Each structure stands twice: as structure tokens, then as C-alpha cells.
Amino acid sequence: MKKIYGSAAEALEGVLHDGMLIAAGGFGLCGIPELLLNAIRDAGTKDLTFASNNAGVDDFGIGILLQTKQVKKMISSYVGENKEFMRQYLGGELELEFNPQGTLAERMRAGGAGIPGFYTKTGVGTVIAEGKEHKDFDGETYILERGIVADLAIVKAWKADDTGNLVFRKTARNFNPPAAMCGKICIAEVEEIVPRGSLGGDAIHLPGIYVHRIIQGDHEKRIEQRTVRTA
Amino acid sequence: MAWDRNQMAARAAQELQDGWYVNLGIGIPTLVSNYIPEGMDVTLQSENGMLGMGAFPIDGEEDADLINAGKQTITELDRTSYFDSSTSFGMIRGGKIAMAILGAMEVAENGDLANWMIPGKLVKGMGGAMDLVAGVGRVVVVMDHASKHGDSKVLKECTLPLTGKNVVDRIITNLGVLDVVEGGLKIVECADGVTEDELRAATEATIV
């Protein structure tokens, strides 16, 4: 089966529908599926829920879908650095579900691993625990969190082979593997598609079983906080 | 007299132990990395998926794929390893990280910590703070003893929404060092030029 598509728009054909849940990889602007986000904007799909650690900035990442009012709800751990997000949220136009960062990552991993729920200490005694099942194990209290299964996962990797095996680069890996795992369909955008066998089976970060469609393209890879030391 | 930001960071660095894996929060805790004792083997975790965090890059060597949890460009070391976010928080929740040094808005005498949200103000989110305080071996808070209005941030009970309940082990402020113990806080030491009476007077929490 051919997994390589010619463009982000082609890869998204037949996949998008209004009201869907999309899991997106990335941390801040690092390792975000920027080409697929652009193509979702162009497709005009509406009422989207995004499970994504962050919401991008005003003009990059998920931020561009906030500008066009395509997002109904965000499931995130941190949404600073985005004025349009705050305007819509405070105006009641946008729903927001805060998840602790590790809980969000594990919800994605669990969803992809066939685990519908798990108990965690994170958030016990805070607003996050309200309304959730509590259970004691070995004298400590935990809360039940649900796995996430997304209609679509969009991720960014460094390299792929034509079977969808992925390799990420440095901290751009972040949420991409768990997001990929929890999607019923996963589309990966990569900087380079390399010949089968050249990645080395031991070096694969995410096996191609999780990846259904692949596109290659040029990435802007914007830096959010350029910080340097004086030499 | 009291400690400034760098003196607080230097004092917090004394909490480090050889061989530890440690997570440093944003703000004063980040400065702790400048005071790791010579010859001590400490590995810094960045919860976005990295162990062995290096210094900021020199101008021109920034890499968009290499950032810390504050989204700042950083560098790697020869010991560096990378991993995904679920693995990263697995090691946090699993107690593999020996210590987190974090900033705070309020700490209570029972170890409750509030550092993510002020109701009615802009809410940005908790990020990884709730996972860190729930999971790591030891939680050390570094913060100013009082708010900008002069109110004690070391309280009998937190007034702000909590990040974690009974999670703080030690508090380092510009006025001194306090431990969370049975029944309240215990003074460990006073900052340079600060008397124990002054530290008590500046603290709303019960000191035992």
C-alpha cells in the first residue's frame, strides 16, 4: 500500500470532517505539523477539537486555525503566547480543557495502546481532580484519567521511509509519537523521505504501523524564544 | 539585608547531590544551573523530552529542534538523550527525577503549592508543574518571601488554586530556608543579615 502523498492537501483528502477530534504533535512551535495545519486551514473544516499541548502563536501553528474560527475546543496544558486564543476564550467562543502535560501525553499514549483509562497522582487535591474517580493504591490516592482516541493525528518527523517508519530530531520529538499512536488515522509530514532500509531498524523512533500517510515538504521551523549566551 | 536572586539560586544549588537527575523550573530555578558545584555530576531534565540539558547556544548556533521547557533555544551535551513526552512524564511520575526546583506564588505550612493560576486573571495553564510536584522525589520551592504588596507568600493555607497538595519539602526565599515538617515549618537557616525574629515576623505560616 502506498503511503506517500504529493501534498498536505492530498494527504488530507477524505479524512477531514466538521466536529472532528484531531491530536497534534509539537511542543510550543517545536516539531509542529505546520504543513498539515496550513492545509486544514485551506480546507475550511470547522468545529474542530484539538488535543495539543499548546495552541501555537497568533500567526503560526494552531493559531492560524483560531484566526479563521475553525477551532471549537482545545485540550492543552499551556496556552500562553497567543492573544487571539485568549480573546476567543474570554469571549466564550472557544472551549478549553486544561490537562497537566504528563496526563495529556499519557492520555494519548494510552488511547493508542488500547488502554481506556489509567490512574495517576497528578492533580490530586486540585481542580483537575474534580468530578474524577479517586482510588487508593498502597496508601496513596490517584485519579482516573481517560485515554484519548482521535479521529486524526497529525505529526511532524525528521525522516521517514516509504513504510512510515519515523525518526525525529532532538526535542522536536515531544508529543509527536503519543499523538501519532492515538489517531485512527495518522498523517506524518517529514523533512526527508529516505530509501527503505536506510534508517536502520534499531534506530526507528516510531514504527510505521502507526503512520498511514506521509508527505515531504519544506518547513519554516520557527523559533519561539531565541536565547543565546554571550561567548 | 537578604539574598538576591543569584544568592537564592546559589543556596538552592546546595540542595543538589552527586548523581542526581533534576528538573529546574522557569525563573530563579533556571539560574541554579550556574551554581552546580565543580565536579558534581548532575543531569538536568527538560520535560519536553531531554536529559542532559546544556547551556544557551552562542549566536548563530540556535537550532529550532532544540529547546527547553520554556521554549528557549539550548544546546546538548555528550551525555544527552532525547525521548517523547509520555516517556518524559513517565520518568517524572515514576519518581526517577530526584528533585524539582520550582517557583511559586504561594506555599502553605502543610506543603500545599500554588503556582499556576490566579482566578480572574489570564490563565495560561499548568504545563508540567502538576506532574512534577506529584512525581519527583523532592520538591524545593525558590521564591520571594513576600508578594509585591508585601504580603507573606508563606501561608497557613494557600488562597490560590493548588498545583499540588502536601508536595513541598523545602522553601528557599530571599529571607531564608524553611522545611515543611509535622505541625508547620521549621527554620533551617536565615539569609545573610536576616534574624530569626525577622524571618518569623515576615511569615504568616506556623513556625515550629
TrEMBL record, chain A:
InterPro entries in alphabetical order: 3-oxoacid_CoA-transf_A (IPR012792), CoA_trans_fam_I (IPR004165), CoA_transf_BS (IPR004163), NagB/RpiA_transferase-like (IPR037171)
Similarity field: Belongs to the 3-oxoacid CoA-transferase subunit A family.
UniProtKB keywords: Transferase
SMART domains given in the database record: CoA_trans
GO molecular function terms noted in the UniProt entry: CoA-transferase activity
Pfam families: CoA_trans
Lineage: unclassified sequences, metagenomes, ecological metagenomes
PROSITE patterns: COA_TRANSF_1
Protein name, as recorded: Succinyl-CoA:3-ketoacid-coenzyme A transferase subunit A
Automatic annotation (TrEMBL), chain B:
Record's keyword terms, sorted: Transferase
Entries under Gene3D superfamilies matching the protein: Glutaconate Coenzyme A-transferase
Enzyme Commission number(s) of this protein: 2.8.3.5
GO molecular function: succinyl-CoA:3-oxo-acid CoA-transferase activity
Domain of life, per lineage: Bacteria
Coiled-coil residue windows: none
InterPro entries hit by this protein: 3-oxoacid_CoA-transf_B, CoA_trans_fam_I, NagB/RpiA_transferase-like
Record flagged with keyword Transferase: yes
SUPFAM superfamilies in UniProt: NagB/RpiA/CoA transferase-like
Record Pfam families: CoA_trans
Protein family: Belongs to the 3-oxoacid CoA-transferase subunit B family.
Protein name: Succinyl-CoA:3-ketoacid coenzyme A transferase subunit B
Origin species: Sulfitobacter pontiacus
